[in-house]
Backbone:
């Protein structure tokens, strides 16, 4: 299957830094901010954003990890049995500004599940969404506040995000099936 | 409140645990004898996440929305039944409970017909406790819903064994090479039997300590088919070097059956008291599946001492059962 690299590690580094700047610009009170990574690859991205914010502004922003598998609505239709991991949010989220962080925004169903999971943990005052890649094909009225890169894609294609922390390499690629037909 | 630097590293470690749901093969939970160590690890891993849910202000997630869980108990039970019901409710399943005494069973409906009725009513999971060994397996043969054995006769009580293993793991990290002593009526105990399977699968060594009349028949020479199980009728010898001491309830019926001369003699020879517990390792934990007869198989001091994890077992039971319900309702039928 042909695979085309769309973002290199340098691209990812710059993009994450730019999103960190945008988060700083949009949120005057950085002390009220909590970054929540959506498992699995949202977590290292959230952590990188926090490192950048620390570098730019000298403020430690708490980072959490959210497992939303128990909130998914596609379990039965896909016959999926996702792994359930712990949710670890190191700070109170009541009244806070939460930035949800994910690698790819696609149908929006993960984001919906993550918001449900988050709201069961408390009552944030604002929830924002940051994604490394927006590939389109939304099935729900959801949009991201911070987008690393828009990658228009066909439904048959796969957007593959790899990060050093989880996959040993920083890279975003698009995988097209051989015959170009839907999988 | 922790900052990102302190916990950031641990956050990154957890998703790489290597535990995956692809190892799961079960559609029913009848006993632990056909479980792999990987499957047990998976249950324990998911139970951790479930325990987080139970610790939250809103103890409910929508994972099993629209699923029917029916508990069918032909024997009395407090904690197992409540634990299953709470577990199912925390996952947003609809729970219906049927006690044999108030059901059509009193009108003479057969066991198989009862199972088929539950199936027709749309059960996704049937939790069954029955005095007859093998009843859950019979149910599993007739219905396509998942069957969970909540205790059948002398045979098995797999969810109790899993919550015991989970509790041990929280205190001892790993079960490999641990010395677990099970004291009491091991002959009639489904808890002991399932624990022997589960504990040995996870690499622990099990010592059964019972009066000779209350040992499983044939097990005195069982080392051939249970390499990690040994039998020691002397409690003082059995407790030497124990990491975990599991005490079983002494059922009063055994006295009537002539298997024990008197309760007083049992207390004298087999009660876990402070002096005897001192023979185990200093950091040994004390467990009991409940309900306890304090003052008979266990002294009240030991039952409530710092080494006792008996109340933790009950709490862990809900998390374990949530994990099992999740895994079963997510498994694809062949």
Residues:
């Amino acid at each position: 299957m042909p695979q085309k690299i769309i973002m290199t590690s340098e691209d990812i580094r710059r993009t994450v830094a730019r999103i960190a700047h945008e988060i700083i610009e949009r949120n005057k009170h950085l002390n009220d901010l909590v970054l929540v990574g959506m498992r699995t690859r949202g977590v290292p991205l959230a952590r990188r954003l926090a490192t950048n914010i620390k570098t730019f502004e000298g403020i430690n922003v708490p980072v959490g990890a959210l497992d939303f598998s128990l909130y998914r609505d596609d379990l039965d239709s896909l016959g999926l049995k996702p792994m359930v991991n712990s949710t670890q949010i190191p700070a109170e989220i009541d009244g806070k500004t939460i930035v949800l962080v994910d690698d790819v925004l696609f149908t929006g169903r993960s984001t919906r599940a993550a918001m449900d999971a988050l709201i069961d943990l408390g009552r944030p005052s604002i929830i924002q969404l940051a994604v490394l890649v927006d590939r389109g094909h939304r099935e729900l009225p959801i949009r991201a506040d911070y987008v690393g890169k828009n990658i228009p894609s066909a439904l048959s294609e796969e957007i593959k995000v790899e990060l050093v922390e989880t996959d040993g390499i920083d890279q975003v690629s698009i995988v097209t099936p051989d015959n170009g037909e839907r999988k | 409140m922790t900052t990102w630097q302190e916990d950031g590293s641990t956050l990154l470690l957890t998703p790489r645990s290597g535990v995956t749901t692809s190892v799961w093969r079960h559609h029913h939970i009848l006993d632990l004898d056909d479980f792999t160590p990987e499957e047990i690890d998976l249950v324990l891993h998911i139970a951790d996440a479930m325990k987080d849910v139970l610790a939250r202000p809103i103890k409910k997630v929508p994972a099993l929305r629209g699923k029917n869980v029916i508990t069918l108990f032909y024997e009395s039970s407090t904690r197992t039944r409540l634990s299953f019901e709470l577990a199912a409710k925390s996952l947003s399943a609809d729970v219906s409970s049927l006690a044999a005494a108030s059901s059509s069973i009193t009108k003479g409906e057969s066991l198989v017909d009862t199972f088929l009725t539950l199936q027709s009513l749309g059960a996704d999971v049937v939790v069954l406790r029955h005095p007859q060994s093998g009843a859950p397996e019979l149910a599993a043969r007739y219905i396509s819903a998942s069957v969970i054995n909540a205790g059948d006769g002398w045979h098995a009580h797999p969810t109790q064994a899993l919550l015991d293993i989970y509790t041990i793991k929280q205190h001892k990290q790993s079960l490999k090479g641990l010395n677990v002593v099970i004291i009491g009526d091991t002959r009639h105990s489904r808890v002991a039997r399932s624990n022997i399977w589960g504990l040995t699968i996870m690499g622990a060594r099990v010592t059964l300590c019972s009066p000779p009349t209350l040992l499983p028949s044939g097990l005195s020479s069982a080392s051939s088919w249970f390499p990690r199980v040994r039998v020691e009728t002397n409690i003082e010898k059995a407790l030497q070097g124990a990491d975990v001491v599991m005490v079983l309830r002494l059922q009063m019926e055994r006295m009537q059956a002539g298997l024990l001369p008197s309760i007083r003699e049992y207390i004298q020879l087999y009660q876990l008291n402070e002096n005897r517990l001192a023979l185990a390792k200093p950091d040994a934990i004390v467990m009991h599946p409940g309900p306890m007869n304090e003052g008979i198989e266990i002294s009240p001091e030991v039952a409530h001492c710092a080494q006792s994890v008996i109340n933790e077992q009950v709490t862990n039971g809900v998390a374990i059962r949530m994990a099992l319900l999740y895994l079963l309702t997510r498994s694809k039928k062949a």
